[in-house]
């Protein structure tokens, strides 16, 4: 990821904020609270205005450039003592009207929904520079000293995770080599930046506890002369951490223009050393000729911001109002706290399953704090609506030929917890779990071990069911620890014949495919499914089109290098997850599902959202198109021509069957090739045919007509009280003869082996052989 990528949101924000700095030269100083208030307003409005025109702050470019030059020439950073005039505030509020109108509109019936308050949560003064998002390159971070490479300055990034072993290259913080007050971590913003704050976090390690309890901040334009950040006439002392994980925000008493910033620890946890992870808040001051300032905009006019529950609902409502012909919103249940699990359906005939049309789903927000997936799904929903209306052929085709279901928030309770803290202050795990503390991705019934145990017992895996494994009894008991969110998803999966899905997570950059659960409880082991080749294809489709994953120069997120695996990995080979949604989906339903880890940062700052949409847009679209791979068709009764539900579709050399849906239609995802397919249904004779799957991205039609077994026909005729036709009489007679021959043969064989046994027993040397 480039160090100077810039989004329009950020640009708009900068332009707005920049006029503060410009004003600094001419206006009198005003109070700090005013300053913060105004920054807040600018942040909120400028980011929502991201896709409209730039705020009128742009007009102040001449003044702005003057400030940049003065600031960068002098050794000392320039302090922006004042703030924007009220006119600038008004100018930047381009988009707020619409949103305030949205906020008035409520129509909820759930208790939890009624209790929602119209709370404006405090916005950070300026966006993060990107230590966490990796927008800031390793080369931009330096330190006074460090204990060893794995604790080097490049590890001093907010929320960075360490490997299990300390001592490798990837430890969980920057740690100074000395325990004195001369230590610092330095970030070079490269551009002149209005610094507004620091976020500090302790060291991530399972072996040691280290954190910084107080610190000073120093600023410089040339890395030679440093000025300590002041609070009035005294050097400002910032409050740091009290534990290793909780991020603590320290706002500069006065936002200050500079290029470099240092965090200078003063006190630290008494039993530890000086270790920290940090994020820096600052508004970049771009020159008008900056090549990155505007060409990285998302081209789509979507609502790029983090939507809490209420805002999400309103956004969904606005989309169904905009595209009533192709959308429908429904709920699949409620969270523990009573928030509804909303799904938006996008299809040419919303609300109905059309014969032969595959069903697709995206599920996001299973871990509530992994917020990017939620926003991407909301972006996707808006995008599909807008592009369909525009007549974008690719989208029209997708919407016409597919029934798409989007669940942006599987764990809304968890999300609200993380959202209330904010994208930078939620830490690594806050909001991950359901309200009851359940990790939803470990909460599905473990069907893997049921299947593997049955296979072991039977000795021959082909003798036991390899799909549609029933849910075990313990799981259905009332006191079973099953989250309401999980129950809702399971019945949704059972109701709709989904073919393909992806489960959107965050905190890494990799696509994982099942099985997630390893055999024999191995902590890590490649555990492929019978459809390993197709799953690898699916994972590759997403990973190779995601702009960040596909960048060969990208830095690893935390401590694992997935690039050497082309950014895909078998779930079990990464780490075992019993009870995962992917494994359940594969073993209990027809649906193939992978997990996408969308970004290193679980909860990216709002200014990152337009770029993240661009990073994922093609992947999200092309992945959905994979639902049209392999073979599909309808399985019908030869006489009545009616579709046969629950017919089993077996593909030779693929020890995983799938079943036909209620109308007899089926979809079998397969890579290109020649396949021998056998279809079998209760009461019917099996039918076999050869099906060819080409390279083209559309499914091969492979229909089957099944003939009832003679016994089944006989049963039906008898039930009707009808006369048995001659052909059936003949067939039944042939069947009886065949049965008789088979049973005679079996009896003879049994007798023969008995005879051999008795003879052996009589022979005296028999047991010694
Ligand atoms: Zn996750």
UniProtKB/TrEMBL annotation:
The active site is at residue 597. Its cofactor is Zn(2+). Residues 70-128, 748-769 are annotated as: Disordered. It is found in: Secreted. Residues 1-24 form the signal peptide. GO terms for cellular component: extracellular space. Residues 75-88 have a biased composition (Low complexity). PANTHER family: CARBOXYPEPTIDASE X1-RELATED, PROTEASE M14 CARBOXYPEPTIDASE. Belongs to the peptidase M14 family. This is Probable carboxypeptidase X1.
